[in-house]
Amino acid sequence: MIERHDDILISRTIDGNATSGDWDELTALADANPAVWRNLAMSLREHQAFARAVNADVTVADAIEMPTVRRAATTALRDGGRHQAILARIGGWSGWAVAAVFTIIWVSGVLNLVQNAAQPNGSSPGHTAMVGASAAELLAAYLDKGRQEDFVIAEVPQRILIETRPNGTGRGYELIYLRQILERTVVPDLYQFNRDETGQPRLVRYDGGPSM
Amino acid sequence: MTTGPQHTVGRAMVVDAMKGDRAAMDALWREHRRWIAAVLLAHKCPEDQVEDLLQEVAMTIVARINTLREARYVRAWLRTVAINVARASARARRARPKLAPLAADPPGPDAVSAAVDDEARRLMKLSARLADTYREPLMLRAIHGMRGRHIAEILELSEATVETRIARARRMLRELATGPEIDDDERAPVAAARAM
């Protein structure tokens, strides 16, 4: 690329780094070619606009603090980086209300689960085998069954650290974290909370295509 | 891990952070996190993922700061961490075709974006057409309080080279801004071809 000295002089001026010699040179160039003044004005305006955009975008960093425990960070590092988009996506669901049909399906599913659990001796074939199983084994069984039935996609491997504190025994740390399971379901309709012209909340049917 | 007194800035703070001092690491992060966000953006991280990636950068810093050779290289080291996180994220996005449509949502209205005017947003979008070689120093320079010496340390370049790249980047951005409007699909890597 051909170097243009007026670019350097204009850039220094924008950054407040121009010396008196630079100003003399710039003035001389502009006397010979008034377009230099125009370039200076446009560059200054663009720099200010660009800086507004950049500084607005990087303010997101102000909300990010250091993780509190090295061990937690190491764990997250091992698992992290693979499901960032999913996690971001999960946040996007929070403003949505799923249709009543879906709610009914979910409630009936929970009721079935409770009823099955309440049956003495259990009636499902796998129940006896699970007696005495640990919580981790039960969860693993749930994930396997869910995958078989195509409603569990995966467990998000990255766990979100909520709180850390020294363990009560005086050794190690107690970590409070969030684990998430990515599931799928099919519903006939979706509704979104919106506001009408008077500012009152209302449900609006979502009509945005196959992906929210 | 120890907890030291309140730290401000400087090489001593970096040395303390390298030793695992909690307060020093906090101070180090707060001093540098904004420009680290700019580096992520300069390397084409989607805006809606910057927050997650910053958390990953922060975790990497905590876990790996003891691998920093010398305190004076801290800015370059932080940039390397950020770029590695950005690249790993890009690879993960490419390797996850099944989940790609989930991430393809249009970003919702966001307070920060809404606060920036159309001209600013347009220039930001146009800057994506610059090669990283030019876009990165330009973005770093745009951050309030960022000096040429700091940018040179981050990029491991001389101050003169940084000045030259920023001047060129500004000219290229001006040419893009005053040139004909073209769709994203039609855009050519003109700026990339000019990179040194």
How would you characterize the overall build of this protein?
In chain A, strands 1-4-5 form a three-stranded antiparallel beta sheet. A two-stranded antiparallel sheet of chain A has the order 2-3. Chain A starts with a helix and ends in a 7-residue tail after the last strand. Chain A has 212 residues and is of the alpha+beta class. Chain A has two domains: 5-61, no CATH class; 70-205, no CATH class. In chain A, α1 (5-15) crosses α2 (20-32) and α1 packs across α3. Chain A is 49% helix and 19% strand. With 196 residues, chain B is mostly helical. Chain B folds into two domains: 1-115, Rna Polymerase Sigma Factor, Chain: A (Orthogonal Bundle); 116-196, Arc Repressor Mutant, subunit A (Orthogonal Bundle), CATH 1.10.10. Chain B is built from eleven helices and no strands. Chain B has helices spanning 11-18, 22-42, 50-64, 74-94, 100-103, 111-115, 118-127, 132-142, 148-155, 159-178, 190-194. In chain B, α2 crosses α3 (50-64), α2 packs across α8 and α8 packs across α10 (159-178). Chains A and B meet through α1, α3, α4 and α5 of A and α2, α3, α4, α5 and α6 of B.
Give short descriptive properties of this protein.
heterodimer; A: 212 residues; alpha+beta; 2 domains; two-stranded antiparallel ribbon; 8 helices; 19% strand; elongated; B: 196 residues; mainly alpha; Rna Polymerase Sigma Factor, Chain: A; Arc Repressor Mutant, subunit A; 11 helices; disordered N terminus
What is the compact description of this entry?
Chain A is α+β, with helices and mostly antiparallel strands and 212 residues long.
Whole-number count of domains of chain B:
2
Q: What's the N-to-C terminus distance of chain A?
A: 45 Å
Considering the protein shown, what is the CATH homologous superfamily of the largest domain in chain B? RNA polymerase sigma factor, region 2, helix turn helix motif
Number of DSSP-assigned strands of chain B: 0
- What name does the CATH topology of the largest domain in chain B carry? Rna Polymerase Sigma Factor, Chain: A
Mean pLDDT of chain A: 72
